[in-house]
Amino acid sequence: MIRIAELKLPLSAVEYHPENHTEYQPIAKLTALAAERLGIPASAIARLHVHKRSFDARKSALLAVYIADITLADPAQEAALLARFADQSHVTPTPDMAWKPVGAAPATLADSERPVVVGFGPCGIFAALVLAQMGFRPIVLERGKEVRERTKDTWRLWRQRELTPESNVQFGEGGAGTFSDGKLYSQIKDPRHLGRKVMTEFVQHGAPEEILYAAHPHIGTFKLVKVVEGIREEIIRLGGEIRFEQRVTDVQIDGEGAQRQLTALQVLNQATGESYALPTQHAVMALGHSSRDTFAMFYERGVAMEAKPFSIGFRIEHPQSIIDQARWGKDAGHPLLGAADYKLVHHAANGRAVYSFCMCPGGTVVAATSEPERVVTNGMSQYSRAERNANAGMVCAINPEDFPRDAKSFAWAFDGKTYGVEDLAEGQFHPLSGIVFQRQLESKAFLLGGRNYSAPGQLVGDFVAGTESREFGSVEPSYKPGIHLTNLHHALPAYAIEAMREALPAFGKKIRGYDMPDAVLTGVETRTSSPVKIGRGADFQSENTRGLYPAGEGASYAGGILSAGVDGVKVGEAVACAMLGLELPS
Ligand code: FAD
């Protein structure tokens, strides 16, 4: 097949039926365009398949831009045609994007040899799925509950201000992104097309087909829940086992130095209170960024890890119409375009970068804490993205230099333990110091919000002016269980507030109305990425502990659903290769 990029058609050429969200591809028009580009008659093209479709709003008339794969009526002509366009990057051979198993488990694989996957978020899901597809019958341990039960627990915080610490937005089947916008794109390098594997599995388990071709696909919360359940069933069908409410509380590591080898996991069955050892030589640790107790346990067991930068800030809410207007102009409101997103960045005079994070068009701001008496914000939406407001994190980048390094702060954050922070040499950063900082900010937000899981909030106009907000204006915020208006200057360090006050008017120049005085800020956003990096070698095993595979967002090898899924595929393959004595795929 031949892949042709940059095939452009006016928006009106795309047939869309809003009543059933169905988009019909303009195959005949694209075929004519492709034939013209290649200098061949349209009849020489036997089939055209749309690989990607995006929109280009830079011209006065909005364009639909396609990448298409064509099959020639006479496939023998393909090589000659490709040779004619060898110097053009827009005409290339279609790559083979199908995922191929790296090997197969021996039929004799004993129960005691089954690999373990800890965490059933996107990373753990895909590690377990590919291991199951290769016949390894993985055992999955997930601290939270299965997704339907978890949904009830999560809603209890949003509606009744009751947090379930082991079953919430961060913990449970599907992982952190289950109650999300379900954005499914990423900027990772993906030469092996593993992202396609992830997307194809999503579609096979109920996601809409359009996620395979839309440039910025998303599936929203409800559809994601069904997909997660479908993949769970597939893993079980293939011989895997998924144990919910099972928290890994310790790891047994035998040997010293280069001989350190994982030999067992200690697991707490949270439903019964029983604790048991699960012997294993291969455990994928797909923990997510909020498993602070497990990070601390790894630190105590000497697993190589370090503090890393992340970002802190607020959620910002605007009427979605402002964003649509700025992005789509006169085409705003066209059902095919849907609710528009944005991406903004500002480099402040104090050296800090402020940027938009995890933008949720037509969505809601959600309470995302996993710890009692702490407040954390994030955003989610449904597939339709039909809510009145756009929301996004507006966050400021921070570094380990910003994190606390005093014993008192550590003892406060870790129930009296200081993890040796008092012995740190000058210029060294404690691996757990980012967690201390997150906990400080989240606890302060709880206090500022009124100690009942309401989040502290402020109008943008008041935030820029530095005055407390007293009542909402034209923007009705969506955060549940509620917002307590205050002065958010107390919620974050002064450098972050200063950088954000500078960024807002600058963003207002890029998106007219972005700095509207009535827009609402809700705090705090602290879980933008993991506060630790759990390093691994080229074989995907921990830098200093064989058999332990740090993976996904928690270990800092992913950021987002798609990249976490891709990392899961890679780590699942790495486990299979280690068990079979094979080279890793290149
Ligand atoms: P996680 O999804 O965090 O999964 C880790 C799992 O491990 C959890 O289920 C946890 O319960 C379990 N676990 C942790 N410790 C243990 C233990 N000791 N024992 C057993 N189990 C354990 N990304 C996007 O790409 N698009 C979006 O639209 C998007 N929206 C988001 C909205 C919200 C509200 C949130 C919170 C996140 C959002 N994200 C989004 C980010 C995305 O969810 C994460 O990047 C992704 O889920 C990371 O996947 P993961 O598998 O590495 O970790």
Automatic annotation (TrEMBL):
Domain of life: Bacteria
Pfam families tied to this protein: FAD-depend_C
Coiled-coil intervals, chain numbering: none
Domain FAD-dependent protein C-terminal: 309-528
Name under which the protein is recorded: FAD-dependent oxidoreductase
